[in-house]
Amino acid sequence: MKELLNFFIEIGKLKRKKRRGWVAHQIKNPESTAEHIFRMTFLAWILGRKKKRFNLERVIKMALIHDLCEVYALDLTPYDPLLPKDKKKIKEILKRWPRFTPDLKIKKYKSKYKSESRALDKLLVKLPPNLKAEIKNLWLDFEKGLTKEGRFVHQVDKVENLLQGLEYWKKYGKIQHKLWMRWIKEWLDDPVLLEFIRVVDEKFHKKETKI
Amino acid sequence: MAKEKKFYLTEQGLERIKKEYQDLKNLKLSKTKGEIPKIWQSEDLNPEYLSFQEDLSFLETRIAELENILKNAELIKPPPKERQNVVNLGAQVIVEVDGQTDEFTIVGTLEANPALGKISNESPVGRTLLGHRAGEEVVVSSSIQTIYKIKKIKYNIS
After folding, report:
1. Cβ B112–A185 below 8 Å, yes or no?
2. A102 CB near a chain B CB, below 8 Å?
3. Is the model's pLDDT at B1 over the cut of 70?
4. Tens digits of residue pLDDT in B57-80
5. Which of B65, B109, B125 minimises the CB distance to A186?
6. In chain B, what is the greatest distance between 2 CA atoms, to the nearest angstrom?
7. Domain count, chain A
8. How far apart are CA A199 and CA A205, in angstroms?
9. Residue A122 sits in which domain range?
10. Any idea which architecture B81-155 has in CATH?
11. A20, A62, B13, B99: which has the highest count of C-beta atoms within 10 A?
12. Domain boundary assignment for chain B
């Protein structure tokens, strides 16, 4: 029980961990990692109900654990490693979507995977073996898209980011919403999520469509 | 009867699926044959027992999923030389978007990983690029339209 309590205390830190992407966009009081996980789990569960022969328990658990590694690992953004400390320079960088060479994409991917995997192992080290194995297995599935549930939840993560980005754009206007809409169309291929994005697009860009 | 979904895979992707299928079948065999934890015969709720139970049911689901993939797998092959100027599955496409250059490989959904530039043929961008030639501009639409200019197409399937 003591180990479980320590684990709960550690993951509680995600309630106060502000998401770096929104901090870079200078969003006032940006969401925390736990807040992202909260809505993403609802999206995964409720949109997952529209899928046939889907293990929803696996989907929900995967959404819950997908960012636990961020207790110790850096919450990387699509702009890393381009983000400078100078706020003025950050603004310039955020105007364009970051594009990288194939070699740099591989390098970034491997380094992110390695640091997050290590961070997760550190978090899980004292948990009972079966729980540790279950969480690690779910995370690997999420990261690598090994099962249909893993591929779905991975895309739901992007959908939640987009939704939050569009909400901030409406509220503060600091988000390059067009770049985000473009990005999501490279990432998603799940029919349920593509239909959901169509509805999101309609809601947030209604006036622009009329023009 | 509904048509079963085809899974387009590169040779490398197909080999990976075949290997995983074989490994998992061997694992299941060893688990059900002799390597069952002693607690199997006991009524105690040992965590190892629970873990084994859980793994076995997941294992079986995964084996069934892999069987379905292998049954409906279609290998991505490079098109004949005269068709290699057209974007098809397996193509590496260099595009220009908003003055920026990017490179994508068009793959089936199982191998898609946009973080590595592997775009699904079922994604809006992948779908739109298919069938187009170098020099052409394609528009991915919604309320916001994006133009992708195809600069170069290569095939290097493994």
Report:
1. no
2. yes
3. no
4. 777 888 888 999 999 999 999 899
5. B125
6. 69
7. 1
8. 10
9. 2-210
10. Roll (3.10)
11. A62
12. 7-75, 81-155
